[in-house]
From TrEMBL:
Residues 674-684 have a biased composition (Basic and acidic residues). It is found in: Membrane. Pfam families: PTR2. Residues 660-684 are annotated as: Disordered. This is Major facilitator superfamily (MFS) profile domain-containing protein. One of its GO terms (molecular function) is dipeptide transmembrane transporter activity. Keywords: Membrane, Transmembrane, Transmembrane helix, Transport. InterPro entries: MFS_trans_sf, POT_fam. Belongs to the major facilitator superfamily. Proton-dependent oligopeptide transporter (POT/PTR) (TC 2.A.17) family.
Length: 684
């Protein structure tokens, strides 16, 4: 048994030194956690006498109550509350009291589910830590690794496959002769066509998630939609391998199966991508902030935002462990041929159905309950009907659609004449979702800064000295940098900032990422300028055939571009995933996540319009323009959204700020098999 702290010392220090005046009636609540959490086992009334309180606590301190955890600092500040003895208090405390006893702090509040919530003072002073992360969540990250490895493994070699012809003196499968500066290739369609196909693929792969998110939210659920995407993925990989068979390439028949494979891969990725990160964050079922005492006696706050941040970092880290698989495919195309470069990702893809089958019964799954998308637009329409378009997007604009305000005006119908079927909380959800979607509108320019427009950076590498290194190998340094940066942030930088009460909020993180991505583009512009200055063909360096055909600059000078871009992703993309999940209504998480992914599609569309300019001697400007624009937008972005850094984390429509009167009193979880359903009890 772990003894309680010295009662007399605590009483003297808190009750006497602080000169706290007690009422004539009060109580000490002994609250067990675990199985009996939230049930009052013992209420002890007393009549203003500290001696009785001392006797009771001494009795508990010396009784055999089983294995007990050290109490929190609540003993030093326990106030007096009015109560009485429960009618069903157990006779045998030794047998009935569970493994922990919490003596409530006068500042902390206990909600209806027996969870200790922090006060405003505790929110400002206690350290925030991650809640427990279930095993299933880590398995979802492994599933994402397998999917992204198979996806990026083929995507990294698309550019060379389309842009360059079969190398002279090669093996006919796309590989280059040893000791030459040639680039692997197959179709020989040039940079413009290569960039156009690459951008079309990216546009579809990040537009289709809107359909995938809607399908999961309304019809199939996330897990089934992911499984369908997995089947489509497998078909795409098989078609790509067929199109890369040497006999097909040598006959000039590789284009048709390649296009079919690319379109099919985009469809499978779209079904998969919009649902896997919401399914991951579904595994953390904690609602709101919770006060906990660590084994060393420190009181901390279990913060869903910190948990989501850690999950998102782990998730994004596994994405880039998978992306690092591109190292194998880039060497495969150069040394063996494209049939192997496309075949290896297909082999790794086979892990996906196996992992999904293994994890199926362990997942927390939310069944589709119909998307809130229709209700979402009805709220916006009702606000527009009352306010007009003037002031749209400003603070308080959507308040006009709140049922409480409509009821006060005697209105019960929305703008379409139908009965209002949403709550005030849902209107707040709509506000947060719209704000998140407007944040995502800043990402297209950021994406252009992170990796360049189209395939320009890969093409830049083809004009540099490679010495048998693949020109597209440098892509992998983006993933490698992220793999090292993720644990540094998750277990080093962010905990250190929280320990010193430095709030590096989501808007600051995204702004920082935007700025360093602009630096990456600036470095790309300088590199391209040096290539032009030193190439045998001068400012027409792409595809140069004079001398060695390349500038005397090592391809490894591209590392800063890819590495800095990778660091920026740890701040921008990871935070965007958190915002997409946390600020969306419960039945729209897939769709809002897909809106973040759609920013990549918008960027691809903008880049598609710029592909005609990706020609010598103008290849410096596709780096300079995004760098300048990205810097200006980063500054504007911060001043526009910096207030969101002060927002409390929200998930499932239940705000952490329990000091206010929420319309949702509590959220209960009830399991039926492997399905978790939310049952919301409206406050009467």
């Amino acid at each position: 048994m772990i003894k309680l702290p010295s009662v007399q010392d605590k009483l003297d220090r808190k009750f006497l030194s602080d000169n706290i005046k007690y009422q004539d009636e009060g109580k000490v609540n002994l609250m067990p956690s675990g199985v009996l959490g939230g049930i009052k086992l013992l209420d002890i009334p007393f009549n203003g006498t500290l001696s009785l309180l001392y006797c009771v606590l001494n009795f508990l301190n010396h009784s055999e109550l089983g294995t007990m955890a050290t109490t929190t600092d609540a003993l030093t500040s326990a106030p007096v509350y009015q109560t009485g003895l429960m009618a069903n208090a157990p006779d045998n405390l030794d047998a009935k009291i569970s493994s922990e006893i919490h003596v409530l702090d006068h500042d902390s509040s206990l909600d209806n589910d027996g969870v200790l919530r922090p006060t405003e003072e505790e929110k400002a002073t206690l350290r925030r830590v991650s809640g427990s992360i279930p095993w299933a969540a880590y398995m979802v990250c492994v599933i994402e690794f397998a999917e992204r490895a198979s996806y990026y493994g083929v995507q990294f070699v698309f550019s060379n496959f389309v842009q360059f012809p079969l190398p002279k003196g090669g093996n006919g499968a796309g590989a280059t002769p040893k000791g030459t500066q040639q680039t692997p290739g197959a179709l020989g369609k040039g940079l413009t066509v290569s960039s156009a196909i690459g951008l079309l693929f990216k546009f579809l792969a990040y537009t289709i998630p809107i359909f995938g998110g809607w399908l999961a939210d309304t019809k199939l659920g996330r897990f089934k939609t992911i499984c369908i995407g997995t089947v489509i993925f497998g078909i795409a990989h098989l078609v790509l391998v067929i199109g890369a068979i040497p006999s097909v390439l040598q006959a000039g028949q590789g284009m048709a199966p390649f296009i079919i494979g690319v379109l099919t891969l985009a469809l499978g990725a779209g079904m998969f991508k919009s649902n896997v990160s919401p399914m991951l964050l579904d595994q953390d079922t904690q609602k709101g902030l919770i006060v906990k005492t660590l084994p060393d006696g420190e009181r901390v706050i279990l913060d869903p935002e910190v948990t989501a941040q850690r999950l998102a970092l782990a998730f994004y880290g596994m994405i880039n462990v998978g992306a690092f698989f591109g190292l194998a495919t880039t060497y495969s195309e150069k040394l063996v041929g494209f049939w192997l470069a496309f075949g290896l990702p297909m082999i790794l893809y086979l892990l996906l159905p196996i992992l999904l089958w293994l994890i199926n019964k362990r997942l927390v799954k939310y069944p589709p309950q119909g998307s809130d998308l229709g209700r979402f637009f009805r709220v916006i329409g009702t606000a527009i009907r009352k306010n007009g378009f003037k002031g749209f997007g400003r603070e308080g604009y959507l308040d006009a659609a709140k049922p409480s305000i409509l009821a006060a005006e005697g209105v019960t119908d929305g703008h379409d004449g139908k009965q209002v079927d949403w709550t005030d909380d849902f209107v707040e959800d709509v506000k947060r979702s719209l704000e998140a979607c407007t944040i995502f509108l800043f990402f297209p320019v950021y994406i252009m800064n992170n990796g360049g427009i189209g395939n320009i950076t890969t093409s830049q590498g083809s004009a540099m000295v490679t010495n048998d290194a693949p020109n597209d190998i440098l892509n992998n340094f983006n993933a490698l940098t992220i793999i090292f940066t993720i644990p540094l942030l998750s277990y080093g930088v962010y905990p250190l900032l929280r320990r010193h009460n430095i709030h590096f909020g989501p808007i600051k993180r995204i702004t920082f990422g935007f700025l360093i991505a602009a630096v990456s583009s600036a470095i790309g512009a300088i590199t391209q300028w040096r290539i032009y200055e030193t190439s045998p063909c001068g400012y027409y360096a792409t595809g140069c055939e004079i001398g060695t055909g390349v500038a005397p600059i090592s391809i490894w000078w591209q590392i800063p571009q890819w590495a800095i871009g990778g660091i920026s992703e740890c701040f921008c993309n990871v935070t965007a995933l958190e915002l997409a999940y946390s600020r969306a209504p419960a039945n729209m998480k897939g769709i809002i996540t897909s809106m973040y992914l759609f920013a990549t599609a918008l960027s691809a569309a903008i880049q598609q319009a710029c592909t005609a300019s990706l020609v010598d001697p103008y290849l410096i400007w596709p780096y300079v323009a995004p760098a300048v624009l990205g810097t200006l937008l980063a500054i504007w972005f911060y001043f526009l959204y910096r207030h969101l850094d002060n927002d409390e984390y929200v998930r499932g429509g239940v705000a952490d700020n329990l000091g206010e009167e929420p319309s949702v009193d509590r959220v209960q979880s009830s399991r039926s098999g492997d399905v978790t359903k939310e049952v919301r009890e409206e406050k009467v």
